[in-house]
Each structure stands twice: as C-alpha cells, then as structure tokens.
Amino acid sequence: KMAADTPVDILQKVLENEILQSAKVVEEHLDAEIQKLDQMDEDELEHLKQRRLEALRKSQQQKQEWLSKGHGEYREIPSERDFFQEVKESKNVVCHFYRDTTFRCQIMDKHLTILAKKHIETKFLKLNAEKSPFLCERLRIKVIPTLALIKDGKTQDYVVGFTDLGNTDDFTTETLEWRLGCADVINYSGNLMEPPFQSQKKYGTSFTKLDKKTIRGKIYDSDSDDD
C-alpha cells in the first residue's frame, strides 16, 4: 500500500508543473519568433535591420546632445543667472541647494555624483544656497539640503532633507533614485510602489509609501544638522 503524498510532496509537484508550463510557454513563443523570421523575405529583413539601425542612431544622437549640454556629470554652477540658463536648455533637471557647513549636503553630493553618470537623460546641478538668496526665496527653500526637481523649466517637486529617503543619513543611492523616479525627473526602471528602504527591516515598519506628487509650498521643519 503506497503512502499518501504529504503536503510538501503535493506542493513540490504543483511547483514542478508550474515550471514546466512556464518553460513550454517560453519555448512556444521562441518557436513562433523563429518561424516569423524564417518566413520573412530579404526585403522585410533589410527593412527591420534599417529600422533598428535608425533607432540606434537616434539614441546615440540624443546621448551626444545631452552630453553637449552638460548632462552625465554632477556640476556646480556659480550663480543664480547660470541656473536659469541651464534649466532652459534641458527637459529634466535636479538642482541641489547646499551649504558648505552642512554635513548632510556632502552625503547628498556622493549619491548625486553616481546618479548623474547613470541617468544622462537628466541634468544634475548644485548651487550654493548662500549665494542664491533670490532663488531660495522664490522656490521657498527653507531647509538645507533641498533638491529642486525641474521639468520643462518648471519646478515640479522638492526633496527636502532626508525625510522622503527613509529619515536616515545611511540611505542608499537606490532610495534617492526611487524618489527622483516618483517625480518623473529620471527614467526609472524599478517599481515606484515599492520604495527600496521598505525592504530594509531597520526602517521597514515606520514609513508609508509616498504619493507620486508632493504638496508644494507646505511648511517644512529644518532637517539640517546645524540645529
């Protein structure tokens, strides 16, 4: 008399069946693609090749255009006047308003340097808040560090201090990348509904998911370490 399958055995069989089904679907899809290619005549294949080359050429052209406008590196701009010129040139801009004496600005610098190289579709700048009183007044910047997130010449959103980044000095570059993705100021490939810091047990229970837009002009508490 055969022993009845245990729940573990049943689960294993179900999983094996799922894997086999998935593999079959992938195999059928590949077979269909190969068959489609086999049935194409030379003109169609040449047309497909040309389309791909054209897409590649446009992508390279766009990349060169971004680099010529100062994308791809994290740069300091000397004055408020430069800010307006830089913002006018590029669709997506992240500008860090910093102060030399604020330690948290150095933490922000480290992450922005990495992201500027990774996301060349966006321009990454820094501006000394003490040298730009007009802009700080106009953009209502009260806390250092603050990132102004600009699309099409308009400031759409702000990252104020580290509140949105897990409320810790040890936030990861991925967390800042996610936050910029929420503002649609970079091309973000991850899941916006799952902030990276939520998977860290240390911070996971105390933070809620953010809405895609933050409320503009609300009064912020100081987040700098000068208090």
UniProtKB/TrEMBL annotation:
<keyword id="KW-0539">Nucleus</keyword>
<keyword id="KW-0206">Cytoskeleton</keyword>
<comment type="subunit">
    <text>Forms ternary complexes with the chaperonin TCP1 complex, spanning the cylindrical chaperonin cavity and contacting at least 2 subunits.</text>
</comment>
<dbReference type="GO" id="GO:0005737">
    <property type="term" value="C:cytoplasm"/>
</dbReference>
<protein>
    <recommendedName>
        <fullName>Thioredoxin domain-containing protein 9</fullName>
    </recommendedName>
</protein>
<dbReference type="InterPro" id="IPR013766">
    <property type="entry name" value="Thioredoxin_domain"/>
</dbReference>
<keyword id="KW-0597">Phosphoprotein</keyword>
<dbReference type="GO" id="GO:0030496">
    <property type="term" value="C:midbody"/>
</dbReference>
<dbReference type="Pfam" id="PF00085">
    <property type="entry name" value="Thioredoxin"/>
</dbReference>
<comment type="function">
    <text>Significantly diminishes the chaperonin TCP1 complex ATPase activity, thus negatively impacts protein folding, including that of actin or tubulin.</text>
</comment>
<dbReference type="GO" id="GO:0005634">
    <property type="term" value="C:nucleus"/>
</dbReference>
<dbReference type="GO" id="GO:0005813">
    <property type="term" value="C:centrosome"/>
</dbReference>
<keyword id="KW-0963">Cytoplasm</keyword>
<dbReference type="InterPro" id="IPR036249">
    <property type="entry name" value="Thioredoxin-like_sf"/>
</dbReference>
<feature type="domain" description="Thioredoxin">
    <location>
        <begin position="80"/>
        <end position="163"/>
    </location>
</feature>
